[in-house]
Request: fold
Amino acid sequence: MNTLNKDEINQFHEKGYLGPYDLCTPEQMSIVRERIETDLLGTPTVHGMAQYQTRHLDNRTVYDICVAPAILDRVACLYGPDLVLWQSNFFMKEPGGKEIPWHQDRNYWPIEPVLNISAWVAIDKVDSENSCVKLIPASHRKSFPEIPTEEHQAFSQRADPEFVDTTDMVEMALEAGQFFLFSERLLHQSDVNRSDRRRMGLAVRLTVPLVRCWHDHPMVIVRGEDRLNFNEVTEPPAQDTPPPWAEN
Ligand SMILES: O=C(O)CCC(=O)C(=O)O
Reply:
């Protein structure tokens, strides 16, 4: 079990994030990356950045990342034994790929109440050159006004820069196979990919059964049980090959 200790639980409540942690080794992630490249990345990206949504419902490799014990054990320490996987998003930036502006995810999601822990998993190694995610500790305890943005295809809104204080900003540089956890209210951002390396991450979105999701796809109960039945649920895709970390 990857349990969180008291200090880690306090950090999540006070600062809104935790990590980095290891989901698997870089060598194990390179096996998984190859499966993702073969199965998912058939089409060229537009504007240097593409998002692949909800692939945990049709691709077992993606599902296995989402439910890795390293993630679920820790999220269960914060949200309890019943966990729901309601969304997953690949964030892919080719060299030159655009900035993602400062934002709080809670402003964009069709869920009520807006309660979510994201695990951002590094499929490629990420650092400040190839656009690792940056975050502002404790920003999850405030609500930031948003302004419209025209220059970001993926985001029509952004937190008003006038209110964003980056003094304590943390850069989440990760080895391939590492991840961090963050609250739906934490301010986060990523720069232009200034390197000649692609940067691919998978954001895994987890909540609890009491949250109602108005998405056009069903949820998956990934731990425990759903005693409320507010949402349509489905089974995960069948597994052919266990993930490399199954042997850990
Ligand atoms: O990967 C990025 O650059 C942004 C990630 C993000 O906005 C998210 O996971 O909510």
Residues 91, 100, 105, 118, 120, 133, 188, 190, 201, 203 surround 2-oxoglutaric acid (CB under 6 Å). DSSP finds four helices and 15 strands in the chain. The helical segments are 6-15, 26-40, 60-66, 69-79. The chain has a mean pLDDT of 92.
